[in-house]
Amino acid sequence: MSTTTIGPDGKARCRWCDAAPEFFHYHDTEWGFPVGEDRRLFEKLCLESFQSGLSWRTILAKRENFRAAFHHFDFNKMATFDEGDIERLLQNEGIVRHRGKIEAVINNARRAQELVKREGSLAAFLWSYEPEPSRLAEPQTASTSAESVALSKDLKKMGWKFVGPTTVYAFMQAMGLINDHVEGCVMREEVAKARSNFKRPGR
Q1: Nearest to 39 by CA among 63, 81, 67
Q2: Angle between helices 165-174 and 146-157 (to 10 degrees)
Q3: 184: left (phi over 0), alpha (psi -120 to 50) or beta
Q4: Residue 121's pLDDT band (boundaries 50, 70, 90)?
Q5: What backbone torsions phi and psi does residue 142 show, to the nearest 5 degrees?
Q6: What are the CA-CA distances from residue 167 to residues 47, 68, 129 (Å)?
Q7: Degrees, nearest 5: CA angle 91-92-94
Q8: Which InterPro entries match (predicted)?
């Protein structure tokens, strides 16, 4: 079975783009490109937490609603949320109304503040788990890695929630800590260039 599909421009893309028309734009402009900004990294960890048990299409369709509801994932603002905010969010039909996940990302905002105080930035901490490419499985054949297991374990030790190894691995794929575009995908080389030019946070 082929690992690629043909996009609207006639060029090959990762096969998962076939799942929804809007995936092509997300795949070509975001997925796998390295990110070093704390807010964007925190946003993705939150959205991956909300995705647990759901499809990424569901989350992507609601992403702007999530951003509006959670102050664009500014964890310093989210850390101040109280029970009243949780009740407000549970009434918001534009997001995933799951009390456990909502409480988890608010908790994680507070843990992110603590981590920044200790490490200097969320980005420096998360990028310290970037795996050696030679140690990775073939693109899109694994759902976890030694590094995602280690990062998940360490985040949980610090009190983070909904950050299992699979969730963390999906985060690593999306935020460019690995280049998981398949061989033959037109974006694999673009992401490789972006990763080679990217200044790792904290180094």
Answers
A1: 67
A2: 110
A3: left
A4: very high
A5: -130, 155
A6: 10, 23, 14
A7: 150
A8: Adenine_glyco, DNA-3mA_glycosylase, DNA_glycosylase
130 is catalytic: no
Q: Which of 16, 26, 30, 103 is catalytic?
A: 26
pLDDT score, position 139: 85
| CA 62/CA 56 separation, integer angstroms | 10
Residue 1 has pLDDT above 80, yes or no: no
Helix (H) or strand (E) holding 69, with range, is helix 63-69
What lies within 8 Å, CB to CB, of 48 at 6+ separation is 167, 168, 170, 171, 174
> Could you tell me which residues are beta bridge partners of residue 5?
13
Query: Given 43, 48, 127, 129, which residue is catalytic?
Result: 48
User: Is residue 144 very low, low, confident or very high in pLDDT (cuts 50, 70, 90)?
Assistant: very high
Domains of the chain in sequence order: 37-180 (1.10.340.30)
Q: Does residue 26 have an active-site annotation?
A: yes
| Residues found in the chain | 203
